[in-house]
Structures are given as C-alpha cells and as structure tokens.
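Take a careful look at the protein record below. Let me know whether the structure tokens fit the sequence:
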Amino acid sequence: MERVASFSSRLEHSFRALRHRNFQLFVGGQFISLIGTWMQTVALGWLVYRLTHSPLLLGLTGFLGQIPSLVVSPLAGVLADRWNRHRMVIATQVFSMVQATVLAILVLTHRITIGEILGLSLFIGLINAVDVPVRQSFLVEMVAGGEDLANAIALNSSNFNVARLVGPAIAGVLIGLVGEGMVFLVNALSYLGVIGALLAIRVPPRSRPAQPPGMVWTNMKEGIRYVTGFAPIRSVLLLLALVSVFGSPYAVLMPVFARDVLHGDAHTLGFLVGAGGIGALAGALYLAARTTVKGLGRIIVGAATAFGAGLCTFAMARNQWIAAALLVVIGFGIMVHMAATNTIIQTLVDPDKRGRVMSFYTVSFMGIAPLGSLTLGAIASHIGAPWTVFLGGTVCIAGALLFARRLPELRRQVHPIYVRLGLVSGATELEAPISVAPPAEPFQE
C-alpha cells in the first residue's frame, strides 16, 4: 500500500501544473494544433525532397523557416515585456493558420512551386520568431507564479512530444493515401483548437511600466547586457546555440536518411520522426517527475553528450530499427537539454526581463539553427548526410565537455544570489543579487 501511495504521490506531483485551469486549456488546445504542426513538418520535408531531390534545398527550407528568429525574436522579447502576451499568442496562432491554409490550397490545386514553398517557410518563420519567446514567457502567467513553472515547462514539452509521436505517424499514412495537400489542410483546421482554448483563458492583468516607444532599443540593449553579463545564463545559452547549429540540422536531413540511406518511403520518415518523439517524450516526463531544479547543470552535460553520441552512431546505422532506436536516444538528449536550459533560465531571470531573456533562448535554439541547416545541407551535398551528421555529433560532445569544465565556476557565481536572499548559508561579503530565485540551485551537485 505504501508503494502504491508513493507512486500516486509522484504521479500527482509530475502533473501538478495541470491544477491551473488556464494551463489545462492551453495544453489541451495546443495538443490538437501540435499534431497538425508535426504532420505539416513531415509532409513539407517530403514534398521538398520529392520535388527537388536536393539536400541543399531541404537545408534552405529549414534555414528560411528559422532564420527570422535571429533578427525578430529579440524585438519580440522586448514587446512581450511591454504588451499583453495573451493577445500576442492568439495573434500568432491566427497567422499560423493562414499560412497552413495557403500552403494547402496551393498544393491541392497543383500550383505549388519550390519558390512558393520557400516564401511560405519564411512567413511561418517570422510568425514563430514572435510566438516562441512570447509563449514561453506567457507560461508563468498561466500557472499563477513560479511555484509550478518548472513542471509547466516540462509538461509543455511532453505535450509537444506526444504530438510528435502522433503527427508524423498520421502524416506518413496520409501522404501515401491522399498526398501532402490534405496534410496541410488538416494542420490548418487544427489551429481552431488552440485558438479556441486561448480565447477561453482568463489571466489577471499584468503590471507593465509605461514606457515611450523610443525605449524599445534601450530595452533591447538592456536585455543584451543582462544576458551577456551573467555567466550562468550566458553559458547555458552558448551551449544550446552550439548544439542547435551543429546537432539540430539532423532533422532537416531526415528525408535523405529515410529515402536514400535506409531505402524507405514516407512511412519510414514518419516512423523515424516518431521514434525521436518517443525519446523526447521520455525526456520531458523525466524532467516533470523531478522535484527540484538542483543538479540541472550536470543533467545538461549528460543530455548534450548523449545527444552527440546518438548522432554519431545514428550516422553509421543502415537498418531502420537500429536507426529508430538511436533516434530515441537522440530525442531524449535534445529534449532534456532544451527543457533543462529553459528551466534554469526561467529560474534565474528577473521577472521584468523574462520576455527579453526568453527571446535570446529562442535565438539560441531556433535563430541560429538555420545557419547550421544551410551549412550542413551544403556539406551534405558534398560528403553525404551520414558524415555530416557524424561531424555535428562530434562537435556537440566537445561542447558538452567544455561546459562541464565550467560548472564549478558557474556554481560559485549563482550561489551568492541565494546567500544574499537568505535562502542558503554563507559567510562571505556578497555582490548585489542579479535576480530573485527559488531556494534550489540548478548548478549545485
């Protein structure tokens, strides 16, 4: 009975953020939309490769879909700290539905060209450049404070990855039966779920200091100084950026592996993407079950190393089942790394700078990733996708080891914040705290 009670308690703890009505609505609506988004991701990659047979154009499509985050996200972060985040998220979802609808019409009427695909990829990239930092900073409002924030981040990642399991599987079937156009149409309709849920959410007004329009650039520079001046946040963002540039482009090359390396079809592509989703879901649930942010620095090192090692071995796989098993490891590693980084940042950041700092998080995992997609796509055209992915995995491992060497120093820089606030013991004279944070120290062993 004690074991049953203990399991029940842990299960309840793992889903504690769902006690908030707003977060329940958000998760439910987003789940429907995310299934459609993953369906479109798989179908778009397959469509581009079917039309062009070009790894370079696959890389270019990924590049245009993410490069706007490099330029637009910092501005979106400033606006997220100044404007109503709830309304901003609703607007981004409406524009995303428009993009999916146009794509569906063009494909179903057989008028789609590679130029139009690239243009629509750029358009959704602009939307996502605004949506991601605003949505990430909006999470804290949906759970009414910071107590359940880490759990909400983990559950939001779980939601993303459950959809990642379902969406590609459906897309693989639909592409074979009715073509890519119907997949894009289903994605357009799926946005109705998240828009309806967002309209039903009620959040209390957030106090925002009135600032003249000319302060936007000043606010952005303040955010840059804050991020670059605090080594713990700067270091986790740099590692995430390195992994995004050299590791994440493996996903862009997945149609090449499915068709040319593993000699499969659209079903194979959906199967491989779904396998990565299983690992990512396991990683998100692992973080959701944790009761503290303590030790997340060490976890980031292990996750980035596992991700890099998984890429190196996946690059050498020539069997679909072995490749899928390795993608489980890859999915677990990248999800734990990204979600743990997100949690550390949101734990340490000053509340009035949350939107701006989360915009740099977006730049780190989305904004500069297209540089990797384009570069590695070009490299793959010369040395092949397997050796390109192997090279990326090697760089990820090297970055994780360098970050591990810095952990003791990062721990020393975070610790004074907690001592000054009286949350942990300490006897030395300390600098003024950079942020107000909960008692657990993410870089503590």
Notes: The domain at 6-200+219-420 is CATH 1.20.1250.20 (Growth Hormone; Chain: A;). Confidence is low (pLDDT under 50) at residues 417-440.
